[in-house]
Structures are given as structure tokens and as C-alpha cells.
Design goal:
Layout: E1 3-12, E2 15-25, E3 30-34, H1 41-49, E4 54-63, E5 66-67, H2 73-78, E6 81-84, E7 91-95, H3 96-110, H4 118-131, E8 142-143, H5 149-163, E9 167-171, H6 179-192, E10 198-203, E11 216-221, E12 224-229, H7 231-240
Parallel strand pairs: 3-10, 3-11, 6-9, 9-10
Antiparallel strand pairs: 1-2, 1-4, 4-5, 7-8, 11-12
Helix pairs in contact: 5-6
Length: 245
């Protein structure tokens, strides 16, 4: 089992948001987590990736058999976790090239590999930028500075493609995207899909899930997973909303 969450409780600002999450994700699986605003969907992603300010009060999380909660955020990233933010932050003064070169080489170093040579890295970066239809000149721009909403999301998928994570967590990456950008996000997720790679897609809506077929769908309400199923859950949510659960 790649990820095993048992009875996970978490607080934010002294308020309990997650109230007993149980979730298992195997290698090669794509799981969709759907739910209304305030259900705890984004909190789940933040807790898994070790974002500061989120306090786990009960439960356990195993990742590849290791205690994920005992790992620092950077150790989780080096081990293959990736979080695509709902609201990607800007990093003034840092170019995309410098940012991604540092991230890729930090992961390689943590896994006992040598740093990539400059030429090899630039070749790989150009390949991944072309894959997500990002213009080459973006490589020289500061991270997300002056980017439109769609450009920020595209940059997130570029980062995901370049880092090649084992478990990708997409936190409402589809929010505010037009159809073309949505397809680029979906293509990125589908391209990384393999027997070794898994993903958690956090979303309110069904649209992204028309392009990315999840193996399992979970409904998260009031800090708990209240329903698990397949494609039929997406159709039920689309027709009758979350109040039915």
C-alpha cells in the first residue's frame, strides 16, 4: 500500500477540521476527493505534505511503510509527494529555471544521485515545458509573478511533470480554468499515470473528472469521508449535490 491513513484528526487554529479520516491508496491508483466548501479537502492535502499551522491530534499516516507524519515537509517532497496548490504563491526574484533546478537537484541528492548537469537539466525542462504548452520564455520569469490564474495552474503541472512524483495531490487545480487549460491539467495527470504513480484529485466539480478517470471517488463532508464508490458517485453529485450524503 502506497498511502495508508487511519483515523486522522487535525486542527487548524485550534479548530478541528479533520475528524477521523480513513483512506488507503495503492500504487497506480487515482482517487478523487469531492465535497462542499469547508469539508476539509484542502486541509487533508496540507496535512499530508506537512504544511505549517496544521496540527495532527490523532491517527497515523504511512507512506511506503514509513511514518509520514514524522517526516519534515522537504523530506516528504524528496520521498515523492507533490502538492499542486489551489492558490499558487508568487516568489519574486526567483526565476522558474533557478527554482526548478534547485528542487530537482535537492530531490536527487536526497535519493543519493548526482546533480543534473546544466545542459541535461535545460533539455529536460524544455521537454516538459513543451508538454504542458508553456512558452519557452517563461523559464526566465519569476515564479508566478504576473501570471494569470491559468498560467499559474499550468506552471504547477509543469513542476509536477518535471519532479515526477510518486504521489501527486492536486488541490482544486481545476478551479477557474477554461476548457483548454483544464485539458492541459488532465493531460499532465494522465501522462504521469503508471503502475508506480498515484494521485489524489481534490475538487468541487466533476469537469476535470471527465478527462481524468479516477479509480475511486470519496465524498468528504464535515471532516469525514462519508461515501466511497466509483464513477456513479460523480454522476450522483452532479445531479443531486452533496446534501444527499
Amino acid at each position: 500500500m502506497l498511502l495508508e491513513i487511519k483515523n486522522l484528526h487535525a486542527n487548524v487554529g485550534g479548530k478541528e477540521i479533520l475528524k477521523g479520516i480513513d483512506l488507503c491508496i495503492g500504487s497506480g491508483e487515482v482517487h478523487a476527493v469531492m465535497g462542499p466548501n469547508g469539508a476539509g479537502k484542502s486541509t487533508l492535502g496540507a496535512v499530508l505534505t506537512g504544511r505549517p499551522g496544521y496540527e495532527v491530534t490523532e491517527g497515523s499516516v504511512l507512506y511506503n511503510g514509513k511514518d509520514l507524519l514524522a517526516m519534515a515537509p522537504e523530506e516528504r517532497a524528496w520521498a515523492g509527494l507533490f502538492l499542486s496548490f489551489q492558490y499558487p504563491i508568487e516568489i519574486p526574484g526567483v526565476t522558474i529555471t533557478a527554482f526548478m533546478k534547485a528542487a530537482v537537484n535537492a530531490k536527487r541528492k536526497a535519493n543519493g544521485l548526482e546533480e543534473m548537469k546544466a545542459g541535461d537539466f535545460l533539455k529536460l525542462m524544455k521537454e516538459k515545458m513543451a508538454f504542458v504548452q508553456m512558452k519557452p520564455e517563461f523559464a526566465k520569469r519569476e515564479v508566478n509573478v504576473g501570471f494569470s490564474g491559468g498560467e499559474k495552474k499550468r506552471n504547477e503541472i509543469f513542476q509536477m511533470a518535471l519532479l515526477d512524483p510518486t504521489l501527486s495531490i492536486l488541490d482544486e487545480t481545476d478551479s477557474g480554468l477554461d476548457v483548454d487549460a483544464l485539458k492541459i491539467v488532465a493531460d499532465g495527470v494522465n501522462a504521469l499515470r503508471s503502475p508506480e504513480k498515484s494521485a489524489i484529485i481534490v475538487t468541487h466539480y466533476h469537469k476535470l473528472l471527465e478527462y481524468v478517470q479516477p479509480d475511486f471517488v470519496h465524498v468528504l463532508k464535515a471532516g469525514r469521508i462519508v461515501k466511497t464508490g466509483g464513477r456513479e458517485l460523480i454522476d450522483a453529485i452532479e445531479s443531486r449535490g452533496f446534501d444527499q450524503f
